[in-house]
Design a protein that fits this description.
- The structure is a single chain.
- By secondary structure, this protein is an alpha/beta fold.
- The chain has helices spanning about 5-15, 20-25, 45-50, 60-75, 85-95, 130-145, 160-165, 165-170, 185-190, 215-220, 235-269, and strands at about 30-35, 40, 55, 80-85, 100, 105-110, 120-125, 145-150, 175-180, 195-200, 225-230.
- Strands 8-7-9-10-11 form a 5-stranded parallel β-sheet. A 4-stranded mixed β-sheet has the order 3-4-6-5, sandwiched between helices. A two-stranded antiparallel ribbon has the order 1-2.
- The longest helix has about 35 residues, at about 235-269.
- It is globular and about 60 Å long.
Amino acid sequence: MEQNEIYRLLQRVQSGELTAEEAMKDVSLQPEMLVGNYADIDLHRGMRQGMPEVIYGEGKTAEQIIGIASAMKEKGVANIMATRLSQEKADRIMEVMEMDYDPVSRIGVANRRETEHIGKIVVVAAGTSDLPVAEEAAVTAGLYGNRVERVYDVGVAGLHRLLHRLPVLEDANVIVAVAGMEGALVSVIGGLVSCPVIGVPTSVGYGANFGGLAALLSMLNSCASGVGVVNIDNGFGAGVLASKINKQAAKTEEDSGGAESAKDKTEKK
């Protein structure tokens, strides 16, 4: 079960609609589920973290992914995400079960359920070649219930392009900045905004880029404050981290708004 489902169940018990015994029947007390001899699904991850376990598709066969996703769906897990899926694997999976597949981010989603999108995350990409990683971050964050805006092809070789889009960045709760080559975009953005910036180095670039290492080291050595960095090409990790930051910020804003409303009512009295 996920956190919101448990909350609704407790509300029904509180209102008297369900007895405690009836509610217990709906609660999954088994935290793990074995699938064949190749997977042990963490069914309580959504309960602990607000996000279900994700299937890393690279290195798994299509049949293994089908087995894991089918078992999770059987247990009522929604928005089952499989990352790093090739088109070939996705086609095979979709022959057997319903799944939405995005070829740019290489993310597949089974048992999709629409969620409310809150706060604001901005995903920025230096170049069009960085889009697969940027979209992995954006799709991940969107699936986890965050409002996501995209600002693409604004690398430092044409700084005016980024400055023109600055108003979009200024009210974000967190920014994911994706760049290959020398990775300078992260430092530039970090010096222009007040929110946290998550740098994602990509493997885009020529020989001395060393498969993203040059961009990674550049971002790690950024002189801009409030910048954090994930691993090379790890759009998924950046999307998850951005989601957690955005939801904390949105919760703080909601709590502040509630406190201000209560204060206004008191002053009116």
